[in-house]
Amino acid sequence: MSATAPLRPLLSARSLRLAFGGVKAADGIDLDVMPGEFLAIIGPNGAGKTTFINMTTGYLRPQGGSIDYEGRSLLGLRPRAIVRRGIGRSFQLPQLFTEHTVLENAALAIAARAGLWSPLTPLLRPGWRAEAEALLDRFGLGAVAGARADALNEGARKLADIAMAVALNPRLLLMDEPTSGVAASEKMGVVETLVRVLRQAGVTAVFVEHDMDVVARFADRVAVWSQGRIVALGPPQQVLADPVVRREVIGIEAHA
Ligand SMILES: Nc1ncnc2c1ncn2[C@@H]1O[C@H](COP(=O)(O)OP(=O)(O)OP(=O)(O)O)[C@@H](O)[C@H]1O
């Protein structure tokens, strides 16, 4: 490839459609995610943001359109197959095993990646333990590695959940509201940590976010969702200044 070849999208969605009864949750979504970028998705409740993540990660099947990742279709693949292709996700509510320690949770994700874990396998085998400790250190969670997951505050819980997704070595990570429920005083620290880790690991990120300060500071581009469609897309300084976006999306969000 020549040095001047245009950058190809990592993920490319075209004309995605999905309706639930009369509700058009995806009404012709076209979106390219470029390698290395941090793309924020904003939009009012019910706009179809989570539906897009669910279609991309195999939890929902679109009724029309296409989704390609690294030039190959994702359609018809189950969630586990999509993870193996290099796409991770985190949910709005952290999916941790609450009665286990943070270290055990991380070790479990590492073991699951290798396809080696069974209920009879000791979780803290030396290799997994060392990798889990290193992973938690990267997320600034070393000090709480021995704590039960249900003893963490929400910011640490979100980071631990994302650490488990990162343990699967994704090249693209989709995060559904990584700061929801996190105290205002902790929010920027949580996002700073996760952006630093993801950038160091070369992970491209798409994240649903309701906090416009977070979007303005950390997103390379913002896609605005409304009623199953993308109604604006561009750099945050441009999109967040758009009067229609401010009135129709940010205005609504202020009261959500
Ligand atoms: N499995 C489902 N069955 C029926 N309707 C659904 C399903 N999933 C989503 N919907 C509907 O599709 C629309 C889009 O939902 P979605 O969760 O994608 O919105 P969202 O933008 O993520 O909202 P929020 O910000 O509240 O999470 C909503 O009207 C929702 O009720």
From TrEMBL:
Pfam families: ABC_tran
GO cellular component assignments: plasma membrane
Gene3D superfamilies: P-loop containing nucleotide triphosphate hydrolases
PROSITE patterns documented for this protein: ABC_TRANSPORTER_2
Keyword Transferase: no
Domain ABC transporter: 11-252
Gene Ontology MF annotations: ATP binding; ATP hydrolysis activity
Keyword terms of this UniProt record: ATP-binding, Nucleotide-binding, Transport
Entries under InterPro entries matching the protein: AAA+_ATPase, ABC_AA/LPS_Transport, ABC_transporter-like_ATP-bd, P-loop_NTPase
Stated name of the protein: ABC transporter ATP-binding protein
Origin species: Siccirubricoccus deserti
